[in-house]
Amino acid sequence: MKSNLQCKIESIGDNLEPLLFFNHIMNSLGLYIHIPYCLHKCGYCDFNSHPENREESEVYVSALLSEIEHYAPKLAGKTVPTVFFGGGTPTLLPPASLDKILGKVKNHYNLSKDCEITIEA
Fold first, then answer.
1. Quick check: is 12 in a domain?
2. DSSP string for residues in the chain
C-alpha cells in the first residue's frame, strides 16, 4: 500500500506534462526545486511546506532525483541560466542530499557557464 506522500509524489509529474507543450518555443528555462520541509509550519505560510521529517524527506529526495532524470530528455538542448532551491527551508536537508540533487541537475541539464544557483536558508 502506498503512503500519502508516495501518491502525492507520483502525481507531481502529471502536472508538468502540459508545460512541455511550450517546449518548442523556449530557448532556456530556470529550474525551481521545491524542498517542502521547515522546522515547523508557520500559521501565516500558504506555501506547500511541512514540518521536517527525516524519513519522509529521504523518500522525497529519491522521487525528486527520479523526476530530474525523467524530464531531462524532454528538455534536452535547453540552457539553464538559474537553479533555485526554495521551500520550505531547503537547508534542512542534509548537505549530502542537496549535493545529490545538484549533481543530478548538473549531469542531466545544460547549465549555462554563468548559471546562478540560489538556495533559501
1. no
2. ---HHHHHHHHHHHHHGGGGGGGGG-SB--EEEEE-EESS--TT--SS-EE--HHHHHHHHHHHHHHHHHHTGGGTT-EEEEEEEEES-GGGS-HHHHHHHHHHHHHHSEEEEEEEEEE--
